[in-house]
Amino acid sequence: MNIKNLNIRNISSFEDFSFDSDLNKTSLLFGTNGSGKSTLASLLQLIDRTKTSHLKQEADRELHEYIARRVSRESTASEACVEIQFNNGSEVIKYTPEQNKLTSTDERWTPIRVFNDKYTERTIGDTVDVDLPESGIVIGEPNKKLEESQKQLNGLVKKQENFKKKIEASVEKETDSYRTVANSNADVSNTLSFEHFIKENCDFLRDDTLIDQRKKLGYTTPQDNIQPVSARDLSVILQTDTFSSLFKQPIHKPDLDTSKEKLLLNFTEFYTLGVEAYNADSGSCPFCFQEWKDADSAIQAYKRFLASDYNQKRDLIKSLQGCVAQAKEEIVRVNHAIESLQAVVREEGKKYSVDTSGFTQIPLPSDLESKINDSLNDKLHKMTDQIEMNALLTQFADYHTAMLKKVNKPIHEIKNAISSISTKRRRVNVKISEHLMRKLWEEESSVREEYIKT
Length: 454
Description:
By secondary structure, this protein is α+β, with helices and mostly antiparallel strands. The protein has 17 helices and five strands. Among the domains are: 3-123; 255-307, no CATH class.
């Protein structure tokens, strides 16, 4: 594949240049001073280096800088361009000043050999003995030194290539380590690379704990089987609104004479038996078995007392004790559930680095229970008093709610950790690749230094 022609635009003196005819396999270029011979030769040499040199990044940088310095100021074009036309395709190199960006088509490339002053300096040197018979040319002593230097250079290049192969093998080994540890086939060539290894400074961080962190995250799809501990609402069990209203009411006794009231309050069993005897029409006292003359009025008064608003509310107030007992039973039930889950929660917490110290049984609020009982007894002793019960019952219910929230917090954190496990794995994997690159950069510093020296 030979060059047929080339076009250069907006570079040095080449505003829009093309050859008048097709080029041959070997072409001789000549022109006056300033016509652009050196620029053209250097361009072709640099472009060829970007395609054939093993130091491609360095060659790309040199070509970029060369064109950037020579963009024609006289041209109105928005970019500089070199187009090389082969007999089977073309290669286009463009430079955009506004973006300082160099691009190429990267087509199949045939090496170009440029024979200019730099070539002769590299091969026969810049000094020859011309004071010879027949005006011949004899390669002098300087070129022997040049040949020796060239051999030395070739040896250094070979040595550098060997170092590069060694570095690339080490990078590949660390890449394999990454795939094993991270259980991932992600492309990490932007991190684990020869280019990062030979840098003077490495921006990545080394963290030897990352491997253990990754193991803790696991490699299979995690199972989310733990559910938060559930409980009934204690404000419902304690009937907070009902009892708060009831304790606030001044409740008055029914109208009874003092003697009957005392009997009704202190000798309920007597009147209970009396009602049975009265209903049996025995007409006698159930205790002394004598004639019971005022049985009718006494029994009717007792029945009215039992049906009175006072007595019904008194019984309802007494029932608060049962509600408190039910609330305590609910806390005990919750504690049994917590106890049965403790081992599982702790194990899952270790997997996902979650603090499970708060997953403990809920203490019974004995102090609140004691205060509720004191207020209950005060109300029963004096039903006309208005007693504040809402705050105590609310505190009891809120205490349980707050403690249950604390208990369930580790479970929610574990569930959140499980749901975000894929994201965490990806983040740790990235850090592992950076860790391995930094580790290699530190431990193989002598290899890097030798490579740079060559």
